[in-house]
Amino acid sequence: EAQVTQNPRYLITVTGKKLTVTCSQNMNHEYMSWYRQDPGLGLRQIYYSMNVEVTDKGDVPEGYKVSRKEKRNFPLILESPSPNQTSLYFCASSPNPQGYYNSPLHFGNGTRLTVT
Amino acid sequence: LAKTTQPISMDSYEGQEVNITCSHNNIATNDYITWYQQFPSQGPRFIIQGYKTKVTNEVASLFIPADRKSSTLSLPRVSLSDTAVYYCLVAGGKLIFGQGTELSVKP
Predict the structure, then answer these.
(1) Closest residue of B to A108, CA-based?
(2) Residues of A in contact with B42 (CB under 8 A)
(3) Is A63 left (phi over 0), alpha (psi -120 to 50) or beta?
């Protein structure tokens, strides 16, 4: 089944403890991206990647890192999480390497992160 | 970068047609317009996409005027299961979602 898989689905951690949220897609998509979703703010893009070893900042990249060493994986890294990073996170992919002009995004089911 | 504006919420009744309009005044020549549906605790799901004029699929229609500064998602004969948040997205390298429209369908 074609899908985007995120892990974990739920994560509770403490301030400053490094964490990684994994994202994997099995559709051989070029484009992958991360979003956070907060009440009243909708979906905001954190980082995106148009191909292996190519990443770029979205609207809200502060406090996050990403890497794209393989086409299928795009982990989101929080080196020193803070409470304001408590949010619902989504990973998405698209077959269009030019950052999605005419190809829909496929989203994972989300990771709910709580930082205390 | 194109920014989108949608109504925050809308109410409807089962069997009615619902039209949700999205404003995107700064849309670029290469940008497509895509609509997504999101249920609680799930990722957004693709509904329909278009570039200009009208597009129709089995679940919705998308109307885009000639100037492309807005678009309207039309859901025919909504049911309770259409209660969700609907997002308009104008595409580019950086993808900017609007705040979404929370549609509530009542019996």
Answers:
(1) B43
(2) 109-110
(3) left
**Maximal CA-CA distance, chain B:** 41
Provide mean pLDDT across the span B75-92: 91
**pLDDT one-digit tens code per residue, A92-110:** 998 876 655 667 889 999 9
pLDDT of residue B10: 97
Q: Are A31 and A45 a contacting pair, CB within 8 Å?
A: no
Residue A107's closest CA among B34, B101, B57, B60? Answer: B34
**Helix or strand holding residue B12 (H, E):** strand B9-13
A43 to B97: CB separation less than 8 angstroms, yes or no: yes
Q: Which residue of A31, A98, A105 to mutate against B (max B Cβ within 10 Å)? A: A105
